[in-house]
Write a structure and sequence with these properties.
The complex is a heterodimer of chains A (about 120) and B (about 110).
Chain A: E1 3-6, E2 10-14, E3 19-26, E4 32-38, E5 45-51, E6 56-59, E7 62-67, E8 72-77, E9 86-93, E10 103-105, E11 109-114
Parallel strand pairs in A: 2-11
Antiparallel strand pairs in A: 1-3, 3-8, 4-5, 4-9, 6-7, 7-8, 9-10, 9-11
Chain B: E1 4-7, E2 10-13, E3 19-25, E4 31-38, E5 42-51, E6 54-57, E7 64-66, E8 76-78, E9 87-94, E10 103-104, E11 108-112
Parallel strand pairs in B: 2-11
Antiparallel strand pairs in B: 1-3, 3-8, 4-5, 4-9, 5-6, 7-8, 9-10, 9-11
Classes of the chains: A mainly beta (about 120), B mainly beta (about 110).
């Protein structure tokens, strides 16, 4: 079955530094990979989507890479701020071509940006 | 623009009771899904629908029932609540499943005693 691993349950980063979160997956080759942010007591909020034929995608201070050979995605937040503290979830679709069979989520990484 | 609306936000049930969690979206999305989120387990897919009249099971469907009579609504029914169903439930919608971003509701925190 599909397995997604996110690098650690918690990650502490000093304000201003770059936070790098890792998402590894096995047993499948997704066509799309997504990243979400979740704050306590709230639903996940979409951040970025990257396709299998894209190496990198950026949005403001966020950058996502997708290495289908390594079966890994990296999520970077540059110039991190305390407001970036949240849980970040990696998700991928279950079938190639963006099939509508649901997203599989990793357990998330709790990111803490310390002032 | 309301997005995805879930009701209720909180619910306490006794073991054996049944109830329906409501989910509605106003974005005309074809794809809707239900997840449960438990500590240490992450989000797990319960049921999903690719359009009105079409539903299918996800990873953890047992004990839950769904129907999709309209594009807007996707209710989740607990047939006979069990303590193991204590969880936070999220409804989500998207245009085309994994190829597009999903919009989540604010969640329903359910406790079964």
């Amino acid at each position: 079955s599909q397995k997604i691993e996110q690098n650690s349950e918690a990650l502490n980063i000093q304000e201003g530094k770059t936070a790098t979160l890792t998402c590894n997956y096995t047993n499948y080759s997704p066509a799309y990979l997504q990243w979400y942010r979740q704050d306590p007591g709230r639903g996940p909020v979409f951040l970025l989507l990257i396709r299998e034929n894209e190496k990198e995608k950026r949005k403001e201070r966020l950058k996502v890479t997708f290495d289908t050979t390594l079966k890994q995605s990296l999520f970077h937040i540059t110039a991190s701020q305390p407001a970036d503290s949240a849980t970040y979830l990696c998700a991928l679709d279950m079938y190639s071509g963006g099939g509508a069979d649901g997203l599989t989520f990793g357990k998330g990484t709790h990111l803490i940006i310390q002032p | 623009n309301a997005g995805v609306t879930q009701t209720p936000k909180f619910q306490v049930l006794k073991t054996g009771q049944s109830m329906t969690l409501q989910c509605a979206q106003d974005m005309n999305h074809e794809y809707m899904s239900w997840y449960r989120q438990d500590p240490g387990m992450g989000l797990r897919l319960i049921h999903y629908s690719v359009g009105a009249g079409i539903t299918d099971q996800g990873e953890v469907p047992n004990g839950y029932n769904v129907s999709r009579s309209t594009t807007e609504d996707f209710p989740l029914r607990l047939l006979s609540a069990a303590p193991s169903q204590t969880s936070v439930y999220f409804c989500a919608s998207s245009q085309t499943g994994g190829a597009t971003e999903a919009f989540f509701g604010q969640g329903t925190r359910l406790t079964v005693v």
